[in-house]
Design a protein that fits this description.
This is ERCC4 domain-containing protein. It comes from Natronomonas aquatica. One of its GO terms (molecular function) is DNA binding. The protein starts with 12 loop residues before the first strand and ends with a helix. It has helices at about 70-75, 80-90, 105-110, 120-135, 145-170, and strands at about 15, 30-40, 45, 50, 55-60, 65-70, 95-100, 140. The chain has about 170 residues and is of the alpha/beta class. It is globular and about 45 Å long. The protein has 5 helices and 8 strands, in the order E-E-E-E-E-E-H-H-E-H-H-E-H.
């Protein structure tokens, strides 16, 4: 019996939500991006999305959500209800929605960077992240630089793609 291998073990195209304000470009990575409307998340692989042609919207079954440090703090305070609705849309996914935050956990807890200008205590951040990770299908990834956050997101998409392909062949 001959084993059949796919030529491309990693995604070659990443869908990027058109509403991204400071989008990752993946310039140094072996992938092209296509700007589309995603119903959930900011980045996804086309193979794991359902396209609604009437709305011209892609509904991913796995995606990555991008947040700058300041966006993240806004999401857990003033825009909390809106962000919780985003988290709820990933409730049925087989894998958690990864939220990649472009700042380190140490920066947030040390009241530095974007935290220094906010009236929010680090304990509130810890409490919210802990509660959301327990209540929603979400996993937070705090990464110290934008470049590393981009790489983290790409690796999460690759890992998910490889896991799905492995599951599909077994």
């Amino acid at each position: 019996m001959t084993e059949r291998r796919e030529r491309r073990p990693i995604p070659t195209t990443v869908l990027r939500d058109t509403r991204e304000q400071r989008p990752w470009t993946f310039d140094t990575l072996p992938v092209e991006t296509r700007d589309v409307t995603l119903s959930t998340g900011d980045y996804a692989v086309p193979r794991y999305c359902t396209h609604d042609p009437e709305l011209d919207t892609y509904r991913p079954h796995f995606a990555v959500e991008r947040k700058s440090g300041c966006d993240f703090l806004t999401a857990i305070t003033w825009e909390r209800d809106r962000f919780e609705r985003e988290l709820q849309r990933a409730a049925e996914w087989s894998h958690p929605l990864p939220v990649v935050v472009e700042t380190s956990w140490q920066t947030l807890l040390g009241n530095r960077g974007c935290m220094a200008r906010r009236d929010i205590h680090p304990a509130q951040v810890v409490g919210t992240v802990t509660a959301w990770a327990r209540h929603y299908n979400v996993a937070f990834h705090f990464v110290e630089t934008r470049r590393r956050a981009t790489l983290c997101a790409f690796l999460l998409l690759v890992r998910h793609s490889l896991a799905r392909r492995l599951a599909d062949t077994s």
